[in-house]
Amino acid sequence: MTLEILKGLLIPFLGTSLGAACVFFMKGKLNSIIQKALMGFAAGVMVAASIWSLLIPALNQSEHLGKLSFLPAALGFWIGILFLLLLDHIIPHLHSNSKTVEGPKSKLKNTTMLVLAVTLHNIPEGMAVGVVYAGWVSGNSQITLMGALVLSIGIAIQNFPEGAIISMPLHAEGNSKSKSFTLGMLSGIVEPIAAFITILATSFITPALPYLLSFAAGAMMYVVIEELIPELSVGKHSNIGTIMFAFGFTIMMILDVALG
């Protein structure tokens, strides 16, 4: 594995770790306005990344299929949606602003299920980074090293609030700052692992690259629609989340188009 790929896989994990480190510098829980703003920004980044970094390259790589060029992207997208739906039903998890456990009944602690919720979200993000770097390694002209790096940075930006949103509530519930930071940081370790596995899989089945790109897009869109947007819409200050969604979407779009 080249140094460029290694750095690309670790950048999103660094974003989660820096966000989790907020527990050492900020007191109490995140302000509801700040939390909605950060979540809105994260959702915007994920949607833009799904379109420009994943779905459009998947469509471009399938142009040889003519009128059926949409097929790999459509199939991969739906498989990604269904895969996350399955994980949502078989993994017990708890979201930071909810008291209702999702998935099967479990005797796990709330803190453990809170970490599992963020970990569940990080799987498709890791796969997205991995498959884009795999596309660059394969020599595909549609994916550049800069484009892959932009996606890694974009995911890292949206991982920062995720790290903070998990570590600070954990500390507010009575956990030590060190434990809260560690759990928040570890919730992001799944990303480089998922990315590495995706790169290995793609090296064996290169023709599947368009399917894997759209699979990652579908998985990320599931997270946005099923989890992030409903949380943004609940309670006060939903307009803040909407504005920050547009801001995150625009930033990621500009980075991907201008630098990719």
Total count of helical runs of at least 4 residues: 9
Strand/helix succession = HHHHHHHHH
The level of helicity is over 70%
The largest β sheet comes out as: none
Number of strands: 0
Number of domains: 1
Distance between the termini: 22 Å
Backbone shape: globular
User: Spans of 5+ residues with little confidence (pLDDT < 50)?
Assistant: none
Describe the overall structure:
Helix 1 packs antiparallel against helix 4 (110-137) and helix 5 (145-172) runs antiparallel to helix 6. Helices cover 75% and strands 0% of the residues. By secondary structure, it is an all-alpha fold. The protein has 9 helices and no strands. The protein starts with a helix and ends with a helix. The protein has one domain (3-23, 33-62, 80-259).
Question: Could you name the key traits of this structure?
Answer:
260 residues, mainly alpha, 0% strand, globular
Task: Please give the structural blueprint.
Elements: H1 3-20, H2 32-60, H3 71-90, H4 110-137, H5 145-172, H6 177-186, H7 190-204, H8 209-233, H9 238-259
Helix pairs in contact: 1-4, 1-5, 1-6, 1-7, 2-5, 2-8, 2-9, 3-8, 4-5, 4-7, 4-8, 5-6, 5-9
